[in-house]
Amino acid sequence: MAMSRASFAPIAPARRAAAAAAAARTRAPSSTTFGSIVPSRKNIQRRRRRETMIPVAASSSSSRRSLVVVAGGAAAGAGGEMELLPPVSRDESFEQARVAIDAVVSKRAKKSGKKRKSSGKSLAQLRVAVELPLASDAPSAVCAMVRGACGGGTVSTAVYGDPECATLAAGKTKAENDGIAEHVSLDDALRGDGCDLAVGTGAVALVGVPDDEIGKARRVAELSGGRPIVGVNVEWEHAGDGGVSFRGTPAASTATPDETFANSFSVVYSYLPLAIQGIAGDTTEGAVFKCVRGGAPEGSPWRILVKDDGKEYQQVGAMRRRPGAEDLESALYNAAAAKSPVNKGIGVFRGLADKVKNSIPNPLDGLGGGGKR
After folding, report:
1. In this protein, which residues make up the domain named DUF1995 (predicted)?
2. C or N: which end of the chain has fewer Cβ atoms within 10 Å?
3. Rounded distance, CA 39 to CA 366, Å?
4. In the chain, domain spans
């Protein structure tokens, strides 16, 4: 991978034929990848990460040091999460997300039970999010994602931003036992048509809710009482840290209820495939990957990985917050610099020069003039 003027872009096929020209800027994924984040005009966050081509310029030593420090801190509390690798198939990504949801929700349920017994009070509503790549936004693909990532019993109600997805999923539930009892649209959920959020049990999934319907999503969460809320590919921008970074901004003091709600989700699973293109046209696969297996989601690292010559993922960075474009640029540049034959040659030359310098005798030795210079 070339260091100079290299660029990276998330792997992203077009959502519609009209977007094909924009998607052509990126290369199609290899056989080891299986999809991409679906384009959406309303999804600011995924659009920004998906379509932007960013040149990988030289990074300063301070930026390299800061990334290493954060990576070390994240790794210290991550346990086995640092050993997990991105999925190699669509079904594996769904399974990884499902296990992450189950782990966090079940742990909160145990903690909430102990809290209620000791003080008679319940914990605040749990709100988590998963971000899964899809090659298509067709209702059938969305339904397959929900069955794979939310099935099994932890999630009992799925609320869809797209009514067509809700209708298709409800019909499939009768034929396939996915463990999800209710599949409804946002409007139906608010009317109590097909579900009763207040008396239901299990987690409530908000699936593909666009950013202009955050108010409805917030109302669904309020009607759900203490039931956990799982955002599945929600289409609004948020840091994914449960509101920690948002509360530290000046905007938090004047935020609307919808803004506060939108920033209250903690990401427990996220997989973003990347295509890293060098100046010579060669393309390397990479990924931004987060998968919670225990502990607080906010403490789980966001990992930046790149495939080596043997097509194995190697971690080149890890952060406690969601990596931005500059973070990816720095990590990818540093990875390219470490692999560069030119840089390795410089290192060897310096090593030889030091050996030669140290082998030259100092004429002042033995005369009380000190040691070698």
Report:
1. 87-329
2. C
3. 75
4. 6-134+233-339
